[in-house]
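anyone else get weird line breaks when pasting these?? whatever heres mine. first is seq + tokens for prot A
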Amino acid sequence: MAAKKLIFYGLLVFIPISIAAHFLHWGSVVVFVTAAIAILPLAAWMGTATEEIAVVAGPTLGGLMNATFGNATELIIALVALNAGLVEVVKASLTGSIIGNLLLVMGLSMFLGGLRYKEQEFQPIVARVNASSMNLAVIALLLPTAVEFSSNGLQASIMQVFSVAVAFVLIGVYLLTLLFSMRTHTYLYDAGIAETESELELADANLAGDNLEGDVVHKPNLWLWTGVLLVSTLLVAYESELLVETLEEATAQLGLTALFTGVILLPIVGNAAEHATAVTVAMKNKMDLAVSVAVGSSLQIALFVAPVLVISGWVLGKPMDLNFNPFELVAVAVAVLITNSISSDGRSNWLEGTLLLATYVILGLAFYFHPVLETVT
């Protein structure tokens, strides 16, 4: 963890570099790249601050905080892009986040964890509940597109109202999943909780630079971590402005499309800290927590972040509906299908991780060449 802490501290230097690049006009590519790198440590500190505040808040309120702010970085980037009118990029980033968490994060966790341990186990019942929730998410994303495809002359305003109605349903389901996991069926999630909490306490102490050596972990300073969360959030919002402002010009110069950028690049930037956490705990044979991070983040994107963006677009006058690119829906359906198939037995190994990673690479290539294929046809 010392190396991880050092990396996060080192990457903070890109905050002033990105600001200097913006004001000194070093070019869109430099601003885009440095802003993206600057968001990585800020996202990590936001996550750490949320966890520390959650410890003070108690298990119920703390769990709610983690469930609400778990994807705060992605939500901020998406809101900034939505306000700038980049609706298609926002939609692509949502599908990319779901695909990335299910295939890249879980794939890396199973692969690297499987190299160290021959076979790892996690709760199959929880996996099945998560699979059902992800199936609902696919249905919710698929039906608006199906309505648009099968209707002649459907007005955009009607699609917007339909999407807002679906968004409220999804938020309701998300709240019920929190009630299920935190109240009525907590026993399903109890496996390995004590060990997991000790791992997280040790990780947080190391990140903060504390030396435990058998001592009792001190209660976090609420005001300190609240300040860290506030400052990190403001900086993420500013860096997101720089990122979105230069996105179109920078990606064009780099030879990338808005679709590929939204599906592949932006989710990696927003999720990097979570990716590292999932892989780290998987390599410590805590596959329950790794699966929880990967699948839980995907569910939060589908059932909370996407609906919030739809409702926000409605309020801000920036039309955002659930009528997604059909190719994006196919990719999400493929990711959910293979993830549910692999995780249904509650066991994992390095080969299953390889299958998930291979699927992610193939989908990434498809998104990269997708515009070329369109041009050829």
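and prot B, same format (seq, then tokens)
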Amino acid sequence: MEEKLMERLKRLPKVDLHLHLDGSVKPSAVQELAERQGKKLPITDGGDLTPWMQIDSGCTDLRHYLSKFDFVLPFLQTGDALEQVAFDTVQQADEQNCLYIEVRYAPLLHTVGGLELEEIINHVNNGLARGERTFGVLARSILICMRHDSYERNAAVIEAASRYYGNGVVAVDLAGDEAGFPPHLHRPLFNLAKRHELPITIHAGEAGGAQNVIEAIKELGANRIGHGIRIDGEQEAIELVRRTGTPLELCPVSNIQTKAAADWESYPIKSFLEQGIAVTVNTDNLTVSDTSITLEYAMLYERCGLSMEELGKLIRNGAAAAFLEQPLKARLIERVERLLEHEGL
């Protein structure tokens, strides 16, 4: 890929609305955390942790992809660790000229060491806020409910999100084994979220079909859809997403890796744009997918034939879809517009 093109793409103002905290931990950070916590690693000094943390070309599906998280989570059970990796995530965003990020994580996955939900949320918020002050990247969090967990445990996450909404937390999410736990099973949980007037994004149409996207919007009240790539060719779902203006949080590199999409040649992002769908582009997991927000745009330009103007449209869509509180959101949109116009877009 031409160096000048990558430089230009890196200069563009960007947002990342679908970014998992535990999937974006740098291998060097795990080494530091292991030393600090007195935990053993499967490598000798100076060894490479990448094979344990990053997916390779042999990835078969979403479940295989998610297995990489199991290695990292034991190191993220202390407040210091959560603050550090949250701060690091903001730094990684700054390196790609990302103006705003929404970092999502499942608090229940970080309770093994005895941390309470509110402690976990405070530590992540503190790390993001420190990163924001240091790098100038606006950073907020989304709390994930896990599909396999009980209503009671997930309801505690929703209640915690309601207490922190507007104070670092901007939305709630549903993630995990989509094929095994479709959206309609969680209707009571997201009725609770709606009663608290919390913005909702739902992982759907990634490892499951278009019907999951329909259910997420109609039954769970999703304001955005995480991925949604499998609505391609499904007219009922496409029409619903278009008519409701529900943004899709596409993660192209990850979608190819998990086989949510067959290949770059058939990746439907250009078609979605042409059909008036509010498509956004995101990274999903910086480390697991070995990606960056700049690389995501580069692949769309090179492999999917998107023009620079279409990339600009995707960036504008991302800013417009942000759950960021007003008036900061208005200023973000204005800043993105000004910088894109400076780039001739």
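btw re prot B: Residues 117-135 form the longest helix (19 residues). The domain at 3-342 is CATH 3.20.20.140 (TIM Barrel).
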